[in-house]
Amino acid sequence: MASPPPPDLGWLIGAVTAPGYVWSAGFSAEYSGAHAEDIAVPIAFYGPGIPAQRLEPVSTVDIGPTLATLIGVDPTEPIDGRVLPEVVGH
Prior knowledge:
Distance between the termini: 52 Å
Number of helices: 3
Helix content: 10-25%
């Protein structure tokens, strides 16, 4: 059973936006929500040996491991994400 909210909390609301809708107090760049198109972030890799292509789905945590491989750096600790083989050529 859920505990009651603290008396000084004020209003408490839970909502899910419609697809393609961002609820914001002003103009800003936001990536969040309950729908895939609300959290999609464009990622571009450009350079010699990187072929023009469109990959889906990938995650923002894939940027670090992919860049590390491209420049020949081995991470010293475990990291999130994966190397995108389509970008690095293996």
